[in-house]
Amino acid sequence: MSEAEPQAAERLASAAATIGAPDDRGRRRAVLVAEGPIRNMADGLGQYTFTATALQRAVGDGKFNNLACFLDHTAGSPTMRDYVGVWTEPRLESLPGGQTAATAELVIHNPTLVEHVFAALAEAPELRPDVGVSIVCYPTVAKPAAGAPQAITGFQSIQSADIVFKPAVPAARFFQAAAAAEAPPFPTGEAPMNDLITPIPDAAAVEAEDSVLKLQAEAEQLGQWIAATRATMATSMIRDARLPAKVTDRLLAGVYATPEEVQAAIDLAREEIAEAVGAQAVINTPKPAAAVVSDEFSRTEEALRYIFGSREAKTPPPNMRSLRQLWVNWTGDSHILGEFNADNALGIVKAAAITPAALPNMMVRTIQAIMQEETGNLGARRWFEKVVDVVPNDGTMRDLEFRQFGNLGTLPIVPDGAPYQETTITDAKESASFAKRGQMVGITRNAILQDDLGLTSELPRKLVQAAWNTRSASVANIFTMNSGVGPTMADTKALFHADHGNLATTALGATDADVQTSWEAARQQIYDQAELGTTKPMAMYPYWLLLPPELLYKARKAFGYGELGYPTAHEPLRMDFDEYDMRPRILVVPEWLDATDWAFMVRPEIHRTLVMAYQQGGRNHPLPSIWFAADQNGGLLFTNDVLPIKIRDEFMVGVASWRGIGKRNVTG
Predict the structure, then answer these.
(1) Which residues on neighbouring strands pair with residue 139, listed in sequence order?
(2) What integer best gives the mean pLDDT of the chain?
(3) pLDDT tens, position by position, 200-213
(4) Which of 13, 201, 219, 605 suits a disulfide with 169, CB 3.0-4.6 Å?
(5) Are residues 30 and 175 in contact, defined by beta-carbon separation less than 8 angstroms?
(6) What is the SS3 assignment for 390?
């Protein structure tokens, strides 16, 4: 009997594959595959049968070690979205019917994904679903006699063992499910179903073992992301509750597994505040309980999130969807005349001595929160964040200086007992200045009277777009100022200069080969730039390729970024770039109008070249500052019936070094 190796990954479930109840470590031992035939979807005799020899060899060769487990077979390659865990401690066991079975323990990394499956398997036998295990493998199949199932005599590789509905092997189930019912018999004469085979290229078999290790690493990263997301959501809920500062700090120090636990902690804190306020003897100042005030603030701010266009906002009641109504509630200004009349406002406004600034302050906080949400939707406008180094400062907006130190290329040997020799340090200094940028936007009286949600819902988005457009243009201008050679450096030469070894007139190229040749020349030019005070090369390769929009298509094709399906000798984009990878990461600079010029840079983590600093002083790119001018006796609210919003962005853009950056000013 000869054997053949099929060119497809089989998705096969053994009739005895089962998964049991968790042990004290939370693991579940399961039968992954067992000796005997598979069944088709009509419970008839299937196309294949597993042999005991195949299972013995597979266990002995470690084929079942550290298999990934997914929920259901996917139509293509498996993804981390469906990842459940990993199988460990495989061994051979004998089932009650005498069949040889391969079993393993399931270590669950994503319990939320499968909790409904295990809950269903815990039901009474008559309510228990037909759920079990199915393996994805490259089997070795013996050629059968006419009409007989094909015998699986070995495995090239086993990629995963997945939890599925109605596995092809009836005994491939969780132990607790298999204990209540025996595998159904195979009626004869049924035509086997062959719908469990998904063609996969031959090369996939070679990478099968590596894919499992990659999936395990991705699973650990997924767990870290889940924990970070949970903490971020809890922080957001607690801050949105607007509790007193000490109470907020106490809640932020807690650890919460679910949103319900966070809300329960917030509700308990509000009850404690209300009890404390009620226990005080308040004379001649009849204020409501702090919890009541806090609730009204929370309800109003959630309504403002809806009015100002938050994509995450809950839909408030109809009477809270009106900016006009909220204005009247908090100011008592029923005719929208720019007046504050506590007697006409909400009861708590008068009782709690709330000032006219309360509503504008809530509007500011709401708009800032929505602007923060919208930064994730800015797309290509955030290109500059990847190439600049945000430097700290003391907030005084004085000019910043950036020093480059040299002549420290290598350390000399110090003989035993000899003194250390002093080295003369070479340095170079560049400087940059802050600038204040801003604008005023007004919400008119008519917009409030008519509840113009089209205006208010678009306002935060436009504000954040304007800020990032300004920052993007400021960084892009460094490359295009002074006819494309950039600002003058401390050595009196332009940023891009032949003496700096970072300027040429070479076009990106007409063909794929031309583009690759141009890029290799740019890589070598940056690598050869000498350290300050020495002749030694800095040995840095550029990482970013900066292009006008017109060159994006050509560059992606030439460097083999394969989503577009172009034929290429290069490997499609991976996530494991290192300093020796020949391909650049591509950024489009929206403001560049010259369709042929291009530039290149090292990563700012490797060498500080372009720098930014913000008045706020942090190391990230903050939101601009905004204010509402709410004084009804002065300003535009008084003279023009406009509620003005002022946006201000104070930042600095500069160049710290000409090393690590290059430009191609293409002629013609």
Answers:
(1) 155
(2) 79
(3) 344 444 454 456 56
(4) 13
(5) yes
(6) strand
